[in-house]
Structures
1.
Amino acid sequence: MRHFLITLLLVLFMPSAQAELAVIAHIKNNIGVLSAKQVQDIFMGRTRNFPNGRFALPIDQSSPLRAEFYQKLTGRPVEQVNAYWARIMFTGQASPPQQLPDDEAVLQTVRENEGAIGYINQIRVDKTVRVLLLIN
Amino acid sequence: MSSTKKHYLYRKLAKSVFWVALLFSAITSVLFFITELDRSSEKTVIMLNQLLDTVESTAAIAAYSNNSAIGEDVLKGLLRNDIVHEARLSNTQGLQLTNARNTEVPKQAEIVRALASPFGDAEVIGHLTVIPEAQYTLLEARHSALFGALNSSVLIGLTALIVLLMVRSSLSRPIMKVSDTLHAITAGEQERLEPLAHHQDDELGQLVEDINGLLNTLQEKFKAERSLRKEIEMIERQLRNLFDTTSAGIFLLDEAGRLLTANPTLSKVIRLPDLSPEDLLGQDFPELAFAEPEHLRELMRIAAGRNQSVAQDLRLKNSGGAFNTWVHCLLSRQTATSGSVSFEGVVYDITDRIAAEISTRHEADHDSLTGLFSRQAAERQLINLINTQPAPVLLLLDLDYFKQVNDTYGHDAGDRVLIEVAARFKNCVRTSDIIARLGGDEFLIVLVNCGFPEIAREIARGIVASVSKPIQLSSTVSVQLGVSIGITTEEADLKQTLEELYKAADQAMYEVKRQGRNGFAMVMADGTIEVEQIAIDG
């Protein structure tokens, strides 16, 4: 019984607790690094451009990583972020970032779009994308 | 009850209670309004803050996402509240939204809420501003104040009404009842106030008791007064009766002797019966009534100087045709409190008494046979004359041969001789001289104011001559007498007493008798006696 509970906890929290997230962009994106606030502004729809003025396309995930990402980025639970988007969407003036199923899909999209910005587990980062920010 | 409009106390009270209540109501309303205005604006601020709390997160999202649609929504929502006049939303990215009511109101203090980013920490990303609706606050306050005023007015009005009714029923009514009963009561009557029901032990009960006590005292006083008045009236009537019907004249004089009061009898007493008491008033009484007014004036002077009454017999001016009329007058001074002096007096008729007195004195003073003065009367007059200047001359006379006439012809003849001799004496002296019969055939003649002895001699000679003439007793019988006279003259000592004068005259007379009668002898200043015999015809 005790072993079971420990195992369950490990299963539940290991990935998020252990995961270190990387915000990635196209390899040709040369803006260097971004602050957490700048990343937040882009993902929350506050701005549509990178600091250098180029168009930014935020890519979201529908994986469990999403909750961890927003928690760590905004300090707020993901439900609040959802509610925020729900209100924005109701006005019809904006919509939340497109959601992709997993890290692989995100990587693929980022590689193909010069303005794209997404987040993946750090361990999946390779040389084909540029890391703008590391979140843990 | 007076015909003028009556001012009821309780109405007055009601009026004052009403005005005071109105004033209080107004004051409380104003105070209420002011505090309510304060409270209302405070409440508005609280409510606005609560409203801001409600929309803050949405507004923050609008500001954060620069989303004007949400912002407009928020502002619209805010404006749905009556207490919001204007709402503004702005953010750091240049969003400026405003929504306002188009009412004209005085500028109110705005409430600004800083909007923090919904993500991230204390970063301020915009401001939400609201301006309270002053009209609303005012309305609210006014409503509250009005309600309060109405409330207090009703309460105060009700209280006033209750007080009024209480005062009216438990004070005004009983007092009116007492007052009405009092109006109907005549002072000094047996009637009394009835005790008020339910008020026996309170102030009104005591008032009624006190009034009854007062009425009792009043009645007793009235009774005493009435009996006293009756007594006084009776005495007054008796006195008035006495004053009117008395046989004495009663009067009051002022200081100068003018009549101030007179009773009806006075005019009769002073023998002026045609004058009424009214006619007498103001007249000068001494001059009006008396033969010698100065006597009464003198009496008044004496009375003024004394504290007791003075009296004198006074002769009246108006005798009414009869002989002298006399009144006895009693006079006493009266000093009024003002200091003025008056005289009250009584006069009554004493004419009869005086007449009786005069006749009595005449009898005593005169010899009933000859009508000459008696010895006492003569001596009385002589005493008064002794010290006068010149001194009186005394003639002491003794008839010669009278005893023989008496013995021969009887006492009746003697009497007739005496009467005749007396008549002859009278013819020989002056009217002012005094002739007295001292007793038997002895006479005294006093010559008043006889300055010269020669006059006395002359008179003496005349007397001797006159007496020696025959006296006719009947148609057939006549007698002849003589007289011896002793005379004291002024040469005699003036300090001599009556007795000594008599004695001297007596000695002189005996000297005449001794030397042969029918003559006179005079006592000289040196004490010698000078005799003069007179030859008798016959």
Note: The interface with chain B takes residues 37, 40, 44-46, 73-76, 80-81, 84, 87-88, 91-94 of chain A (CB under 8 Å).
2.
Amino acid sequence: MRIFVCIKQVPDTETKIKLKADGSGIDEAGIKWVMNPYDEFAVEEAIRLKEARGGTPIVTAVTVGPKSRCSDALRTALAMGADDGIVVDAPYETDTFTVGRLLAAAIKAEGTADLVLTGKVAIDDNASSVGQFTAEFLGIPHTSVVSKLEVKEGHVIAEREVEGGTREVVRLNGPCLIAANKGLNTPRYASLPGIMKAKKKPIKELSAQTLGVEVSGKVKHTNFQLPLEKPPVKMIGGDPSAQAKELANLLMNEAKVL
Amino acid sequence: MAKILVFCETQNDQLKKGSVELLCAATKSQGEITALFLGPQGKAAAPLAGQFGATSSLVCDDEKLSSYNPELFCAAASQAIRDSGAEIVLASTSMLARDLFPRVAAKLDCGLASDCTQLEISGNAVKARRPLYSGKCSAEVEFINSPVKFVLMRPNQLPVSDPQSGKSAEVKLFSLPPADTKTTVENVVQGAVGKIDLTEADVIVSGGRGMKGPEHFKMLEDLAATIGGTVGASRAVADAGWVPHSMQVGQTGKTVAPSLYIAAGISGAIQHLAGMSGSKVIVAINKDPEAPIFQRSTYGVVGDLFEVVPKLTEEFKNILK
């Protein structure tokens, strides 16, 4: 059994975002990079599947991005317990369509995937698209926002969240892609021996060129802007009755949102 | 004149607000508008798209689409896009559309801009803007070499015009193209029936640790019911099991952008702010004047939420009755 986990390296939530002077993108200087939190659920699930099967499935972590820094995210996955890694060297700005193409090509180059896992969304671009692009390019079904997964012989049963807290139980036959939601598991921290072992695990370097994928992309982000300054908060004083009255009045007559 | 296909979603035989917003935006651009409805549940609302500018509604009412199957929905949507000759496809960033359309875009060799908050269409040109890094900045989306431009809009971002009563879209049924499906929906466990999802809600009342226990969420439900809102929660509260995870707003929960967001007893950790700072008007009710939530709020009330919230509900009951 071969499991692929697609991960992305993203700026830590606490990181301050600064823009390049010409507005063509963000200034990456000083950013702390981490593995996308939703991808941690995917890595954890892959390792649990491996452990539950006596360690026989091979878990490969794959990422697309600048190899100089993205290899760190792969090392984290390897330290958690993945067997090997693949980094497809590409600019951080690569669009979701092309990332999907590159991930699918990298996986195909390795042979056949029995299961592909990823996070339901990356917290930097909030696109929630790469998993679906990858699945379509691999020609396999997918399901997203998965909070419970059972891998059986030849099929999987996934529980996913849909609108208004409704849950669906979905069966996917054959190889498939699962995009993880919070709740799927609790990701482990890499242990010290895990971190030591990860240093010796292989990371393969690929590029769009070696994979034969066109990278001109379909969409491009331009004209970056910081949000407008919010006007200062209006504090409402008085006793609770006065506060409630004034707040209701402001919402109805000043903000006009009700 | 661009050919625009608007994917419409419905609830209780009515168009969802997000879909109406998209129809209105498309109408403003003077494009040729076709509405798309997938599944038997959409059929009743299909003529209504005409009230907001659609000339026709494509409907696939196959029973196989009564629950969401990505492969079948993808096959039907791709067929409709090809048949209508659409150059621009608009949909809401709903749970369903955000799952479906990347797959459709991949199939048609096109690009997609998800979770946009600004949209202008003139002729064939699409100008969309989307927040990045949890709203710490935003960027414009430029389509390159994408025969169909897919834009998913966050609900509650675009103005809606009044329906033109008497107008009706011509309903054209089409059949589900044959698709080899490896997916089956085995079971659907209904959440609260008829409840609007947080991501689409126009008013949200959220509770945090300051609520002190799950039994007090009734108070927020009362306020929400009075002002037509949906109840949300902070991560601490969802992690403690007071409410289901589906109600969590924030980085590992849902990204929401309602017109009004009321945060009761939420201090405002950066992960929470990441999920709701796009809201138009933010109200914070907290007993700690130093809580970071106040810095992001429009209106702030320092006080005991157990006193303020019921009084606020009462106030609205009087005004809105």
Note: Chain A touches chain B through 84 residues (CB under 8 Å).
